[in-house]
Specification:
4 helices, DUF3817 domain-containing protein, 104 residues, transmembrane, membrane, elongated, mainly alpha, cell membrane
Length: 104
């Protein structure tokens, strides 16, 4: 993962955003079953920041790499589905980064 490229940074944020989304599976029961809201607040703030960064980097990648409508839609949709960003990383982002490496 090359963090100097738009795609590399997008991949990193996608993975972090996916992890933050899945952490809600731990923090939501803590909040509502055990009356411990603090972890949910922290994860919620981190997830909100990462979600905005994901959308920004997704739009940047869509325009930079001139992705078609289907790919663009799937990349944006993935941010709304738990574990969707992991699927997108494996199916779209990693192969796209590999193609870029081979073209250099």
């Amino acid at each position: 993962m090359n963090l100097k490229s738009t795609l590399g940074r997008f991949r990193l944020v996608a993975i972090l955003e996916g992890i933050s989304y899945l952490l809600f599976a731990i923090t939501m029961p803590l909040k509502y079953m055990m009356d411990i809201p603090q972890p949910n607040y922290v994860v919620g703030m981190a997830h909100g920041f990462l979600f905005i960064a994901y959308i920004f980097l997704a739009l940047t990648a869509i325009f930079t790499y001139k992705w078609n409508l289907k790919t663009s839609f799937l990349v944006l949709l993935a941010s709304l589905i738990p574990a969707g960003t992991f699927f997108i990383d494996i199916k779209i982002l990693k192969p796209e980064e590999q193609k870029l490496k081979e073209s250099l």
